[in-house]
Each structure stands twice: as C-alpha cells, then as structure tokens.
C-alpha cells in the first residue's frame, strides 16, 4: 500500500502564458496528511484495472493512474497488467492535487514492484508528461514550484499549524481555473525571506502578503467561494485562500482552539465538505 498526499498552494502567482499554451507560475506547494491510498499488484493479464470506492471517478484511459502506468509500460516494454485498488479521501477536482498525487504514487509503486531503478528525477520527468502538478509529489513535500510545474525546489517551512479545508459540492478543472485569470490584474513576485519561514509566525507573515491569482476570477464566477472565504475569515484564521484552481478553500490556524471552533461552524450544515489536515514533509 502506498499513500498519495494532498497539497495546498500557500500562494500561486501566474506569470504569463507560454508558447506551448501552459502558464508559467511561481508557487509554494505544501503536502498534507490528508491522503488517498493505492494498492497495486502485477497481473498476468494485459489490462490496467482500477477499482475505487468513488463511483464518480473515471477509471479508464482518462484516469491519471491509468495514464502513468500506460506510460511506464510503453517506455519499459512491460508486458504484464496491473490491478489498482484506490481509496479516495482527497476531494476530486478540488485544487488539492489528488489525481496528480495518485499518478505519482502509481509511478513510485510500479518502479518499486518491478525494480526499474528509476530516480526521483526520472520519475518526476515521466510524471510531467501526464500532468503539471505531478513532479511536486516526488519532492520532500514543501517546494517552490516554477515553470509550468517542472521546476521543483525543496524548501524548509514551518509545519506547526492546522489546516481546515472547505470544499463545495462541485469540481473545477485546472483548465477552467486558468481561463479565468486576468494577467493584467496579477501582482509582481515579491521577495520572501526563507529563513523567517522556518518559524510559523514568519511563514504566516510572508504568505499573507501573497495571493492566489486564480482566486479573483473564480470567486466572481462562483459566488459561493466568496461566501466560504468570508465565513472562514470570520473565524479568526491567519490565512484564508483558494488552493490551486479550487474550489477548495483552506484556512490556516496557529491557534488550535480556533481550529476546533471552525470545525464546529464551517460545514454549513453538511452542505460543504469539511476536513482538518496538517502540513507534512515527505520521505526522501
């Protein structure tokens, strides 16, 4: 069994559109202890089978796990099939990187299962062929991510805070999220003192001055996001922000008493998904 952690974007700056149609970004990614789990076994068949507890998740060729294993099979001429049992805990199409993390976990698992000997750098390069967020999941779980996602630089950031995640009952694709961004309204990248961010007060201070450039347009298109953001801000959260292309919003709390109060209030009577998570580092 292998774990596939969620991530949040502590901030996300969109710098421009590349010649290949992707957007250049500058972002800090943080892994969370909220995670999916995968069990992968080799079979004598030739098919890639994915069994999951989520009926709303495609399990065919469009699934990122399927794409990852297919890419490995083609590149390394693997004849066997694979059966994947996926237990989903990360909301789907929610800005938390669940599908990308699942794909990265599948690459790691097949690499280990078949003794392919791939390095993290090699696995990350393969993942990039499938999705821009996948390379991050081969990092230590705290990283500065630039380019379209291919440049991942490990960071050392504070982890002594709580994260409350609120997810409304719909998904937003990354493509839609980036279509909403108005590059004329984005701010320039600010200098951040990394040494200060190893302490939670310094981290909160630094990222409070940043933003998610996708947030403005998506909150306009989906007013419920502004409603959730307002309710979280009223709980005394240190930071409230959209993660990735949403629709999940996260709130960071240094004061864990406020975390408990928020969990009691923020779910809007069960209408919105609500989760408590902690930031984590990942094994080397």
What does this protein look like?
By secondary structure, this protein is α+β, with helices and mostly antiparallel strands. It folds into two domains: 2-154, Ribosomal Protein S5, domain 2, CATH 3.30.230.10; 162-277, Alpha-Beta Plaits (2-Layer Sandwich), CATH 3.30.70. The protein is 29% helix and 28% strand. The chain has helices spanning 64-76, 98-113, 120-128, 174-179, 200-208, 215-221, 223-233, 256-265; strands at residues 2-17, 23-43, 48-52, 81-87, 142-147, 151-154, 162-167, 239-242, 249-253, 273-277. The strands form two sheets. Strands 1, 2, 3, 4, 5 and 6 form a six-stranded mixed beta sheet that branches. Helix 1 runs parallel beside helix 2 (98-113) and helix 6 (215-221) crosses helix 7 (223-233). The model has no long low-confidence stretch (mean pLDDT 91).
Largest sheet, strands/sense/barrel: 6 strands, mixed
Oligomeric assembly: single chain
* Overall mean confidence score, pLDDT: 91
Query: SS-based structural class?
Result: alpha+beta
Q: What's the total helix number?
A: 8
Rg result: 19 Å
| CATH class category name of the largest domain | Alpha Beta
The percent of residues in helical segments reads 25-40%
Number of strands: 10
Question: Would you identify the CATH architecture of the largest domain?
Answer: 2-Layer Sandwich
Provide the number of structural domains. Answer: 2
Quick one: overall form?
A: globular
Percent of residues in β-strands? 25-35%
CATH topology of the largest domain: Ribosomal Protein S5, domain 2
